[in-house]
Amino acid sequence: MASKDDAKPGDGPRRPTPTHPPYAEMIATAIRSLCEEGGSSVSSISSYIQANYAGLPSGHDRLLPFYLNTYTANGLFMVSGPDHYNLSLTGGHQQQDGGGTAAAPDQPPPQP
């Protein structure tokens, strides 16, 4: 018979599946909707997300900067000032073609 000491770390209660969209989508929607000159601040992005999406994790305040940094490093967003973010001109969707040059994005970047 297995004892409590034999329990594996992943055997605990499962977290419910989030009801909100992925963070990349929520952040992009917030930046588009806020349409702030010079980019949107972390606090305004957070406020928008909290006001428009239910079921956010309790660690949202720690997760948002993590995701912003990750998605910025991946080219989805860009830093437009201290703690201010904007949508990337490429949208993070540029891929390399066989010749080693960047392929054109699916859609042209939005005009300011």
From TrEMBL:
Its BP terms in the Gene Ontology are: chromosome condensation; negative regulation of DNA recombination; nucleosome assembly
In this chain the H15 domain maps to 19-112
This protein's GO cellular component annotations are:
nucleolus; nucleosome
The record's keywords, sorted A to Z, are:
DNA-binding, Nucleus
User: What are the protein's GO molecular function terms?
Assistant: double-stranded DNA binding; nucleosomal DNA binding
Which region ranges are annotated with the description Disordered?
A: 1-22, 87-112
Compositionally biased intervals (Basic and acidic residues): 1-14
SMART domains according to UniProt: H15
| Classification via InterPro entries | Histone_H1/H5_H15, WH-like_DNA-bd_sf, WH_DNA-bd_sf
Q: Which Pfam families match?
A: Linker_histone (PF00538)
- The domain of life for this entry's organism is Eukaryota
Q: Which residues form the signal peptide?
A: none
| Compartment(s) of residence | Nucleus
Q: What is this protein called?
A: H15 domain-containing protein
Origin species, per record, is Ananas comosus var. bracteatus
